[in-house]
Structure formats: structure tokens, C-alpha cells
Amino acid sequence: MLYGLCSNTVKRVALELGGNAPFVVFASADVDAAVSGLIAAKFRHSGQTCVTANRILVQRPIYQEFVEKFRAKTCDQKVHYCQFTILHTSNLCHLLI
Description:
There is one protein chain. The chain is an alpha+beta fold. It has helices spanning 2-7, 31-43, 60-76, 90-95, and strands at 22-25, 55-58, 78-81, 85-88. The strands form 2 sheets. Strands 1-2 form a two-stranded parallel sheet. Strand 3 and strand 4 (85-88) form a beta hairpin. Helix 2 packs across helix 3. It is elongated. The termini are far apart. The model is unreliable at 82-87 and 90-97 (pLDDT under 50).
């Protein structure tokens, strides 16, 4: 709607995907690289950055492959606390089943 209103007078506009740090993966993407990028974006500083990926949008043709690879990498993540205790992020794995 906004873009349509601006087009009558040929204004340049930039539209975002609704904010909330979207992570978009197209069918032509390298799935392994996309998964690695999402792991870095999602778990950087335990997800406490303002640009942490909160919405993950994956095109249907690669969706299942992406979810399987993301789940596997997520289950492999470890949180180190004071170099003594190692906690697994298994609670995130259950969300991806």
C-alpha cells in the first residue's frame, strides 16, 4: 500500500521485512553456508544482540533440508560457563522436531 502511494510521484523507497531481524534463505542458496550463517547470527553473544535473527524465512524447496541441518548444528552447540560446566542446547532441539 505504501509503495503504491509513493509510485504515483516516483519516489524512491526502501521497504523492510517487518523488522524483528529476519533471516531469509532462498532456494538457490548454499544450504550449508546458510545454516552456518544462521548459527552465527542466532547464537552470537547467546542471542543477546539487537540483530539476532528472530524470524527465519526459508523457501519451500529447501525447507526440509535446511531444518534438518539447522537442527543438527543446533544440537551440537554447547554453552560454556566459566570453563567448567558445559550445557547442551537440547531445549532448542526439541523446538525443531
